[in-house]
Amino acid sequence: MSRINRLLIANRGEIALRIIRTAKEMGIVTISIHSEVDKNAPHVYMADESYFVGDAPSSSSYLDMEKVLQVAKVSKADAVHPGYGFLSENSVFAKKVVDLGFVFVGPTAEAIEIMGNKLLAKKAVSAFDVPLVPGTNHPVKDIEEAKIEADRIGFPLMIKASAGGGGKGMRIANDDQELQEMFPRAVNEALKSFGNGDVFLEKYIMSPRHIEIQILSDGNGNFVHLYERDCSIQRRHQKVMEEAPSRLLTPEIREAMGKAAINAGKSCDYVGAGTVEFIFDTSGAFYFLEMNTRLQVEHPVTECVTGLDLVREQIRIANGEQLGYSQQDIRIRGHAIELRVYAEDCTNNFSPDTGILEIYKRPQGPGVRIDDGVEEGMNVSIHYDPMIAKLIIMGETREIAIQRMIRAIEDYVIVGVETTLGFGKFVLNHPSFLNGDFNTHFVENYFHPNEVNNQEYDQVAISLHDFKLNENNYSKDLKQPLSKWRSRFN
Ligand code: ADP
Ligand code: ADP
Ligand code: MG
User: How far, in Å, CA of 141 to CA of 337, rounded?
Assistant: First the structure.
């Protein structure tokens, strides 16, 4: 196989930039795509070449397979990296890419198809010694069957869409009556949202942690895992803060989870970087949830603690190279935490916010990494994911990482949209987070929006805004107004 020389990055925002950077380091020509509203976005001018693919809605641009494939041809790309979201877990796309003679930076279309469907995934991994959440491992066709299965599994339980994702397509039923009400709704919703009405039942784990394992496979039979990420701080079943390593795992459980994750990878002949998600209960038992067949949003925390560049590994594997290291070579060093900085109002149920980034100032310093795809003056629109940036912090210990992240949040200035920065600071200061005693219900259990001092941020925003507007401030006394807004945090 000839090496990848020209890489099409079929994505936008921070993940497109993330991939462009590593590709450049590897001497690869980078090609990006953009929609109408993104024509001045950083992923356009950071790439060596960029091609217009359509109007703002994803369905007319980033999700339009034929247009993306057309760019691959016209630009003479030899490989396609899908990033995450958009077409990354679309097996039809992966197949078309390969059939047209391009390298797909990811697993085979077959592996994507199996793991993209929670029921097919359960079936595949069950033969490979991977523990499953008690439930039905086949679609439940009607309410009568659901009731019989519920009797066996016990309440509370979850009704899940087999094709669900992104925290969508899940409902909790506490008793027969709730099951009766929700079951038909879950089927309809699954059909409408995912084009597949298959639902199944799963025991609802009461106070769980979400712990996932990063794996790598080179397609030559070499599998390694890069240990875990704890992603239990969630809202709407979606992650907001992730860390590595988890405070919860003993070396024995870590090893068992790593082994189970590799087995899940083997069950679908996985090639490339993938993530096996587990739910971890209070007794220390863990169960397979699903496998994400792509680079994960929170992959940087693993990079921080292992020292590996996951995009480089993906490209090396796509080039046909062997891993060149084994499990014993992979060590964890230090602690890393990521906060997803979403344009969301955490005081209003984390509802998405839009607007112009009037001021955007990134924090700096040792152990501070920002992966973003925005710039001051840009519009955060309704068209795409509301994630503005990822604030990734590395420290020798968890305590240092926490202190450092609080400092970095205080140094981060975003004016124009509400963000999850204030929420992040709330989490980092919370005793349950500090002592590691929390689960996926952190937000419901502890988060009282009135305790986030958004006003503090608003005041900073206003004073910095006024400061910027008044040109004289720059020439007069730079220190005085700056120390004024800085002091509000102390
Ligand atoms: P991760 O496990 O990497 O954190 P997320 O669930 O946060 O994954 O999703 C990553 C990206 O993929 C997000 O941009 C999210 O919007 C998108 N995504 C995931 N699943 C779906 C889906 N079923 N439909 C649409 N977008 C999805
Ligand atoms: P998605 O494809 O939307 O990411 P997952 O199956 O990975 O779906 O679940 C997303 C989140 O929902 C988990 O991280 C967890 O918080 C919650 N969840 C899923 N299954 C269960 C379960 N059986 N019991 C309790 N919580 C669950
Ligand atoms: Mg998941």
Answer: 42
pLDDT digits (tens, 9 = 90+) for 430-446: 999 999 999 999 999 99
Helix (H) or strand (E) holding 244: strand 238-244
| 449 pLDDT tier (thresholds 50, 70, 90) | confident
**Ligand 2 center–CA 447 separation, angstroms:** 20
On whether the CB atoms of residues 202 and 119 are closer than 8 A, the answer is no
Q: Report whether residue 297 contacts ligand 1, using a CB cutoff of 6 Å.
A: yes
194-239 pLDDT tens trace: 999 999 999 999 999 999 999 999 999 999 999 999 999 999 999 9
- Residue with CA at minimum distance from ligand 2 atom 5: 289
Please give the average per-residue pLDDT across 273-278, as a whole number: 98
DSSP 478: S
Provide the pLDDT for residue 439.
97
290 half-sphere exposure, CB direction, 13 A CA radius = 23
Paired with 211 in beta bridges are: 230, 278
**End-to-end Cα spacing for the chain:** 58
What is d(CA 395, CA 405) in angstroms, rounded to the nearest whole number?
9
**Catalytic residue list:** 294
Closest residue by CA, ligand 1 atom 14:
85
**Are 7 and 71 in contact, with CB atoms under 8 Å apart?**
no
Helix (H, G, I), strand (E, B) or coil at 79: strand
CA atoms within 13 A on the CB side of 244: 24
Q: What angle do CA 466, 341, 61 make, to 5 degrees?
A: 105
Distance CA 96, CA 108 (A): 11
Question: Is the CB of 166 within 6 Å of ligand 1?
Answer: yes
State phi, psi for 7 to the nearest 5 degrees. Answer: -110, 125
Residue 469 CA to residue 455 CA, distance in Å, equals: 20
Q: For residue 343, what pLDDT band results from cuts at 50, 70 and 90? A: very high
CA distance 438 to 243: 13
φ, ψ dihedrals at 262, nearest 5°: -65, -40
Separation between Cα atoms, residue 74 and residue 68, nearest integer Å: 10
Q: Whose CA is nearest to atom 9 of ligand 2?
A: 167
Please give the torsion angle defined by the CA atoms of residues 430, 436, 439 and 442, in that order, rounded to the nearest 10 degrees. 0
Mean pLDDT value across residues 368-383: 97
pLDDT tens digits along 237-269: 999 999 999 999 999 999 999 999 999 999 999
292 lines ligand 1 (CB under 6 A): yes
